[in-house]
Amino acid sequence: HHQHGRYPGGVTMRSTKTLCAVAIAAPLAALAATTANADEGWFIRAYGGISELSDIDGDAVGIDGVDGKSDITLDTGFNAGLGAGYRFDNNWAAELAWEYRTNDSETELPSGAVYDDGNYASSTLFLNGYYHFARNGRWDPYVGAGVGWLQEVDLDLEDDAGEISYSGDGDFGFQVFGGVNYHFSEAWAANAEIRYGVFSDLDLEGESDAPGELQSLDYEPLTIQFGVRYAF
């Protein structure tokens, strides 16, 4: 009597097909699980870019004997920062970031005195939230928003006679942003972003022997920046 459909050792064709299906399905399931969770976990990133600030007409009080509007003209500057965060799933992530920013400035006081050199600079801590859209191959687009706390912001006024500085800290603001990651691997990615931040009504007090205050200054940076990101 012949046993049709059997291989040596009594293994049936059906059981062989089952074993093959399991052998194929198991790694595919593992790969799918890995893909589904590939974007979860901790990450760090470093970035830098071009900083644009609108000109400012804050109030000068007690600086040179004449109170009134100061005219602060700002040039293109740069920013640089470091961030660390956690991506909860394929869509949501949070990050704590520190950033330094500086823009050259020219300041005219109400008296007509002009400080033709100087800079408007800050160091800021941000708590950012990200929403990532569906990943398209290596491309990973996102949008987000964050709350910022100014660790320090200062405005230096320089002329041939020297420099006077005005600074403040502790003010809160916010930023919104959009960008895209390009993944070279699951760990490494490059990113490009555009960001817009708003800090309003800053009051800067004179440092050292600088007289008076600069009040009601706005700080609204627009930034195009690039960075690298490493996921653990």
Keywords:
mainly beta, two-stranded antiparallel ribbon, 64% strand, elongated
Describe the structure.
A hairpin with a 6-residue loop joins strand 4 and strand 5. With 232 residues, this protein is mostly beta strands. The protein has one helix at residues 13-36, and strands at residues 6-7, 11-12, 41-53, 59-61, 68-69, 71-74, 77-87, 92-108, 114-115, 117-132, 139-159, 162-168, 172-183, 188-206, 213-219, 221-231. It has one helix and 16 strands. Strands 3, 4, 5, 6, 7, 8, 9, 10, 11, 12, 13, 14, 15 and 16 form a 14-stranded antiparallel beta sheet that branches. A two-stranded antiparallel ribbon has the order 1-2. The longest helix is centred in the first third of the chain and has 24 residues, at 13-36.
Task: Flag low-confidence runs.
Answer: 2-9, 27-37
Overall mean pLDDT stands at 87
- In DSSP terms (H or I, runs of 4 or more residues), the helix count works out at 1
What gross morphology would you assign? elongated
Q: Give helix % range.
A: 10-25%
* β-strand number: 16
Give the termini separation.
Answer: 62 Å
Largest sheet geometry: 14 strands, antiparallel
Percent strand: over 45%
Structural category is mainly beta
SSE ordering: EEHEEEEEEEEEEEEEE
Q: Roughly how many Å is the radius of gyration?
A: 28 Å
Give the SSE map.
Elements: E1 6-7, E2 11-12, H1 13-36, E3 41-53, E4 59-61, E5 68-69, E6 71-74, E7 77-87, E8 92-108, E9 114-115, E10 117-132, E11 139-159, E12 162-168, E13 172-183, E14 188-206, E15 213-219, E16 221-231
Antiparallel strand pairs: 1-2, 3-7, 3-16, 4-5, 4-15, 6-8, 7-8, 8-9, 8-10, 10-11, 11-12, 11-13, 12-14, 13-14, 14-15, 14-16
